[in-house]
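To: structure desk
From: M.T.
Subject: fold request, one chain
Message: Could you run this one when you get a chance? Sequence is below, nothing fancy, just the single chain.
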Amino acid sequence: MKNMPAGAPAKWHKFVDKVAEFSYHQSMAHSAVVSANSRSSGVRAQGLRIVSLGLKAASAGDLIQQIQQGFAFAALQTLAAESGIALSQLAAVLGIPERTLARRKAERKLTWEESERLLRVARVFESAVELFEGDVPAAVRWLTTPRKALSGQAPLTYSRTEVGAREVAGLIGRLEHGIFS
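Reply: Done. Structure tokens follow.
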């Protein structure tokens, strides 16, 4: 580092940030593909479907592009309809204030950040539905009930962050294998 030019550390950090951002997007797309592939109904010959959002993607790259362009507001409405969770409750989990939600509805589009968070919550919802063998009301009750294994928070609330969503996914995996925690 001593022999680096004066502006190099700033450029290096910018480069590292870009690599981290790219890795994160690839991880999110891979998770969606793995989630879709784990369900025979989620995979089609043409690509993958995120059923709870009403989305189709030909590949992980296509899904990343859809995220970056921002999902249609209808994807959020579809998740609300599929899950029975109120739109306002989903918006709160996604970190979308009420006035912003109204603006997104009028624009008929979410930002890429909101789209990425929506995909994360949809993955958690679909995993919970799988855990409860298709029983959506039971899955929603589980998602909205505080859990000791999640510091006393409901899995849906815990899924506000990627780290939290991974913890919820891990808990679901343990429950699927009969490991109660």
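Reply (cont.): DSSP finds nine helices and three strands in the chain. Let me know if you need anything else for the meeting.
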